[in-house]
UniProtKB/TrEMBL annotation, chain A:
One of its GO terms (biological process) is attachment of GPI anchor to protein. This is Phosphatidylinositol glycan anchor biosynthesis class U protein. Belongs to the PIGU family. GO terms for cellular component: GPI-anchor transamidase complex. Its main location: endoplasmic reticulum. Residues 1-17 form the signal peptide. The keyword Signal applies. Pathway: Glycolipid biosynthesis; glycosylphosphatidylinositol-anchor biosynthesis. It is found in: Endoplasmic reticulum membrane. Keywords: Endoplasmic reticulum, GPI-anchor biosynthesis, Membrane, Signal, Transmembrane, Transmembrane helix. It is a multi-pass membrane protein. The gene is pigu. Pfam families: PIG-U. It comes from Gadus morhua.
Automatic annotation (TrEMBL), chain B:
PANTHER family: GPI TRANSAMIDASE COMPONENT PIG-T, GPI TRANSAMIDASE COMPONENT PIG-T-RELATED. This is Phosphatidylinositol glycan anchor biosynthesis, class T. One of its GO terms (cellular component) is GPI-anchor transamidase complex. GO terms for biological process: attachment of GPI anchor to protein. It comes from Gadus morhua (Atlantic cod). It comes from the Eukaryota. InterPro entries: PIG-T.
Length: 435, 554
């Protein structure tokens, strides 16, 4: 499978390189859907220019990247385009290898379940075969690399491409079972933007499952392993923060990066829900709703992990999706990461209920974003409500997508334990409802 | 016993006909008071010096105070250089003494007190429009201060000047508006002008040549330009009565000198205008790099008023004017770009000196909601890149302080230097917009400070008889003069949210969050079950009765 992957990488790099050479690159790097105040390339250049003028980049309110990014681009400034293309390719390769490992594990679990006769007889059509799973890793890499969202994000040199690479490496090291690497990459991802903290739980669940440690709070082995992992994670995070302190010699970056992400002072429009809400918020309630919205990102972790403790990879997908929808400054680059996972669940297609509606809405919204932005900002014939409405629709479509996949996943699991063709008490065909 | 503090009050009016047909009148009222504010002696006896200002100076430990209120923009290319430049709106800059511990708190109190004294909304000066220039505003009085943490500068470009500001300003004068030159200051004519600027400057000056003690000098200045067509009815003939609808009847009794100067510099062959009543007194002075001749009317002499006991000088034009001396330093500023997302600020600085290059200090204070990108700063003269030799940039902090950009630029002779910087427009919270948000937001004028080499006074080949040992190095009086040029203020539109929507936005966004919460809650807390149809009503009632009876259900 190396040859198709190599071909895919070449095609992706060619498309990106071609777009870098056109004038579209400048146009795309100004678009608010693609870049946000947190990860715009213009702001990275500005931060480095301030550093050249002997002013701390964090003394103003323009630069909100972590000091590691300063350090990285201080050396790679002239090779920025290659860096971002490389990051995209790295993400794709990491996802490819991770999904390959995952498929092997899924197939093994299915084999055990079949041998143990746990699957009812009429569910044979739900069984997955190696032939159908063969092309999934390539499809995942393709979905990531050839997704227009990823391409524009790379051409705009948005640093969320680097964040995606780190999360992909984290997923790969988790799949391979290496707890130390997984903790280190997760710490790096959390250090970049706080939200990947929630991925700690699915990683832990996966590693425990891999080592056959039961997830039982009364078992000492569970606590032992959990504490080990958390110690590695927190330790790496502490090392990263201290390294950042030593880079510029001050703690200024903490309020400038993390304070900024959490307190949302900049109301630049983006595809998320925060900007207009806080632009129109009464001052009295600002802190309250800020806390509500930030807690909203984190508090699905525990219920989801309780429900999905047997399926940590699906949990990772759900978490990444929820972060991309509800984070404070989302961009289309964040979306492309969870959309890359969709081929892994294409066996759920028969249980999906809204997929046509969702895909139409997503396509329409992607087309309407630039149109309504132009009408508001340049033509002056629309106002901010138009753009805000599309933001709402986009978020609703994403929520529907995620919950649809969740529904389909749960339903398949139900069928695998209870049989596919269920009958009512009087023998007629039954319908399943959620009660 | 201590010597009683000495006072000195001088008043002066300069009338300068401008090349475009307009006329420029500049009043200056100067009170010098021998009290040493920086010393220990408590000052409590006020005579000519206004008590309100004296108390402000002592209470807030002010070393220098400069405040100006201007309506209109000075058109340098048509009118030449003003005697005292000022930016449109209100401008306040203060040097505090080094005994002040909390400069920002003192600044805040000072602006509020001054806003009460001058009936102006100076209370809008806060940390979002105050900057600490590092090089541009050196003290104008004595004192060799280098610590710029005691300097504060703020402008309010949106401030409107009207009679309400003129009245308290006039009250500070020793003679009020009763006698002397201040009888001319009537608001219905003063505000019917193209340019009106009133200012108060307080600074310490030397009392004696050895400068052992200091005095406090208060200068109140008022500059006004009357337009040929609106005030002059198109006829090029000016008189005091036409300009101010008053004539002068006496000097202020408290003034030690009260003079009116009329600028009569012109082509010696042909005098374009005729000045009456004639006066024998003539002075020459080198002002703004140019040697000018003035006819002087001394109001302390009874003879100036003639038989009618009133002085109304009349300037009547007979011939066209000669060429105006082109101002050597001139600047313009504008916003480029389209749309409400981004833009560029272009500042053009013109150096019209034929052969001399000189450095200028450019100070720009840009509000925080126009986010400047300093890496896009380009300075070019005559098409080539021109690096500033000194850049002091302080980036803004949202809702706390504005951008401060100070640069030392070298202007090549006879050239235009263009300074360009890109910015991005921020979306503000709905409460941060003014009630008229589509009017736009003002960006205060940039300040260009320079020591300009004068053209006229610089004459390397002098024909005046001077011994050779003193005339080798070109060293005429006033070889260069200090000048400050203010650019136009900018008016920038920002994207606005819909102000009628707070409740709707909260509801809609919370609905979307609730949709997410609801779907996930459903899937997390419910399980799949086979849907058994519920029995009809009759059967349900029968089942209830059967349950009571203990009989198996249907």
């Amino acid at each position: 499978m190396a040859a198709p992957l190599a071909l895919l990488l070449i095609v992706a790099v060619t498309i990106r390189a071609a777009l870098f050479r056109t004038s579209l690159a400048n146009l795309i790097s100004e678009r608010v859907e693609v870049v946000s105040p947190l990860n715009a390339w213009k702001r990275v250049v500005e931060g480095l220019a301030l550093l050249d003028l002997d002013i701390s980049p964090y003394s103003g309110d323009v630069f909100h990247e972590t000091p590691m990014v300063i350090y990285l681009f201080h050396f790679l400034m002239d090779y920025a385009e290659i860096t971002f293309m490389l990051a995209d390719c790295l993400t794709a390769v990491a996802l490819y290898l991770a999904v390959k490992d995952y498929n092997k594990q899924v197939f093994r679990k299915q084999k055990f379940a079949l041998e143990a006769d746990r699957i009812p007889m009429d569910c044979l059509e739900l069984i997955r075969s190696p032939t159908e799973m063969y092309y999934i890793p390539l499809k995942v890499a393709m979905f990531y690399l050839l997704n227009p969202f990823t391409i524009v994000s790379c051409v705009a040199k948005c640093t969320c491409g680097l964040n995606n690479a780190v999360i992909a490496l984290f997923i790969l090291s988790t799949m391979r079972g290496s707890a130390l690497l997984s903790a280190i990459f997760l710490a790096l991802a959390t250090y970049q933007s706080i939200y990947p903290l929630t991925l700690c739980v699915p990683a832990l669940l996966y590693l425990l499952q891999r080592l056959y440690i039961p997830v039982n709070v009364r078992r000492s082995s569970f606590w032992f392993y959990t504490l080990q992992y958390l110690f590695m994670f927190l330790g790496s995070l502490l090392v990263l923060i201290c390294l950042s302190f030593f880079l510029l010699g001050s703690w200024d970056f903490l309020p400038a990066v993390y304070g900024f992400i959490l307190s949302v002072p900049d109301l630049t429009p983006n595809i998320g829900l925060f900007w207009y809400f806080f632009a129109e918020m009464f001052d009295h309630f600002r802190l309250f709703f800020l806390c509500v919205f930030q807690i909203n990102v984190f508090f699905y972790t525990l219920p989801l992990s309780i429900k999905l403790k047997e399926h940590p990879v699906f949990l990772i997908f759900m978490q990444i999706a929820l972060i991309a929808i509800f984070k404070s400054y989302p961009t289309v680059g964040d979306l492309s990461l969870y959309m890359a996972f969709l081929p892994v669940w294409n066996h759920l297609y028969r249980f999906l209920r809204n997929i046509f509606l969702v895909s139409c809405v997503l396509l329409a919204c992607s087309a309407l974003f630039p149109v309504l932005w132009h009408l508001w900002i340049y033509a002056g014939s629309a106002n901010s409500n138009f753009y805000y409405a599309i933001t709402l629709l986009f978020s609703v479509a994403q929520i529907l997508l995620v919950s649809d996949y969740f529904y389909a996943f749960l339903r398949r699991e139900h069928h695998l334990t209870n049989g596919l063709y269920l009958k009512k008490k009087d023998g007629s065909e039954a319908t399943l409802v959620l009660k | 016993c201590a010597r009683a503090p000495m006072y000195d009050f001088q008043e002066e009016l300069v009338i300068r006909p401008l090349h475009s047909g307009d006329i420029y009148a500049s009043f200056q009222f100067r009170t010098v008071w021998d009290a040493d504010f920086m010393g220990d002696q408590k000052v409590s006896h006020y005579r000519l010096f206004p008590k309100s200002l004296g108390q402000v100076i002592t209470k807030f430990s002010v070393r220098e105070l400069h405040i100006s209120f201007t309506q209109g923009y000075w058109r340098t290319m048509q009118w030449g250089q003003p005697y005292l430049p000022s930016p449109p709106g209100a401008e306040l800059w203060v040097w505090f003494q080094d005994t002040v511990t909390d400069v920002d708190g003192t600044w805040k109190e000072l602006t509020n007190v001054l806003s009460g004294i001058f009936c102006a909304s100076l209370n809008f000066i806060d940390s979002t429009n105050t900057v600490q220039p590092s090089a541009s505003f050196k003290p104008l009085g004595i004192g060799n201060v280098t610590d710029h943490s005691f300097l504060r500068y703020a402008t309010l470009p949106r401030e409107i000047v009207c009679t309400e500001n003129l009245t308290p300003w006039k009250k500070l004068l020793p003679c009020g508006s009763k006698a002397g030159l201040s009888v001319l200051l009537k608001s219905e004519k003063l505000f019917h002008s193209t340019f009106h600027s009133q200012a108060v400057h307080v600074r310490p000056v030397c009392q004696d040549p050895q400068c052992r003690t200091t005095s406090m000098e208060l200068r109140q200045t008022l500059n006004v330009v009357f337009d040929l067509h609106t005030s002059g009815q198109g006829k090029r003939e000016w008189s005091l009565f036409k300009m101010f609808s008053r004539t002068l009847t006496e000097a202020c009794p408290l003034a030690s000198s009260s003079k009116v100067y009329v600028d009569v510099t012109d082509n010696p062959q042909v005098r374009p205008f005729e000045l009456s009543p004639a006066t024998p007194l003539l002075t020459q002075a080198v002002v703004l790099g140019d040697r000018r001749t003035y006819s002087v009317y001394d109001l302390t002499q009874q003879a100036s008023f003639g038989s009618s006991r009133s002085l109304n000088m009349l300037l009547r034009w007979k011939a066209a004017d000669g060429e105006m001396l082109r101002p050597l330093l001139h600047s313009e500023r504008y916003v480029a770009g389209y749309g409400l997302q981004a833009g560029e600020i272009h500042t053009l600085i013109y150096n019209h000196h034929p052969y001399r290059a000189f450095p200028v200090l450019l100070l720009s204070a840009v509000p925080w909601y126009l986010r400047l990108y300093i890496h896009t700063l380009t300075v070019s003269s005559k098409g080539k890149d021109n690096r500033p030799s000194y850049i002091h940039y302080q980036p803004s902090k949202d809702r706390e302080r504005p951008h401060l950009l100070e640069m030392l630029l070298q202007l090549p002779p006879n050239s235009v230097t263009e300074v360009t910087v890109e910015f991005e427009r921020a979306l503000l919270k709905w409460t941060e917009y003014t009630p008229d948000p589509n009017h736009g937001f003002y960006v205060g004028s940039s300040v260009i400070s320079a020591l300009v080499p004068s053209v006229v006074a610089m004459d390397t080949n002098s024909t005046l008889d001077r011994p050779l040992f003193s005339s080798f190095f070109p060293c005429k009086e006033e070889a260069s003069y200090f000048m400050r040029v203010y650019t136009e203020p900018l008016l920038v539109n920002l994207p606005t949210p819909d102000f009628s929507m707070p409740y709707n936005v909260i509801c809609l966004t919370c609905t979307v969050v609730a949709v997410g919460y609801g779907s996930l809650y459903n899937l997390l807390t419910r399980t799949f079950q086979v849907d058994e149809p519920s029995p009809g009503l009759a059967k349900r009632i029968a089942n209830v009765i059967r349950r009571f009876r203990g009989v198996p259900l249907l």
